[in-house]
Write a structure and sequence with these properties.
It is a single chain. By secondary structure, this protein is mainly α. It has a domain of about 70 residues. The chain has seven helices and no strands. Helix 4 packs antiparallel against helix 6 and helix 4 packs parallel to helix 7. The longest helix has 26 residues.
């Protein structure tokens, strides 16, 4: 009887963990530092790129020259697939999945850039992740729109 109680207690104490280690909903919870939020969004982008079969974007050139603090985050210019009249992926599950991942990647990249902007635009780490996210978004969007 005691063993069962211990097992139940252990399961109950571990149950909340999966809910707190997941997607952007969890990342944006109060109490997370901006860097923790950026890191979680960046990991989500890399995971989604991998699922699409797209190599994650390399760090931007400003990392090599240490000039990311001078490169203010730019707003995302890529529209979601449904709002882009030039994006015409082929019908089918593969292309639909690719486009869903693309929209998610772009959404997460936009969130990273918004956090970077909230940090004043002079945080080199945040700006680098914003630029990398933007590049990842462009790659994913291109993959979606050229899906056959």
């Amino acid at each position: 009887m005691f063993v069962i109680a211990c097992a139940s207690t252990k399961q109950a104490s571990q149950a909340p963990a999966p809910a707190s280690s997941g997607g952007p909903e969890t990342v944006m919870m109060p109490g997370s530092s901006p860097r923790e939020q950026i890191d979680a969004l960046d990991r989500a982008i890399e995971d989604e790129l991998t699922r699409m079969g797209v190599r994650p974007a390399p760090p931007p050139a400003c990392v090599a020259s240490a000039s990311c603090s001078e490169a203010a985050p730019q707003p995302m210019s890529i529209k979601p697939v449904a709002e882009d009249p030039t994006c015409k992926p082929a019908p089918g599950d593969t292309c639909r999945d690719s486009c869903t991942l693309s929209d998610s990647i772009c959404s997460n990249a936009g969130k990273i850039c918004e956090i970077a902007k909230q940090l004043g635009g002079d945080d080199a780490y945040a700006n680098e992740k914003c630029q990398r996210g933007t590049t990842s978004c462009e790659l994913a969007h291109e993959r979606c729109c050229s899906c056959m």
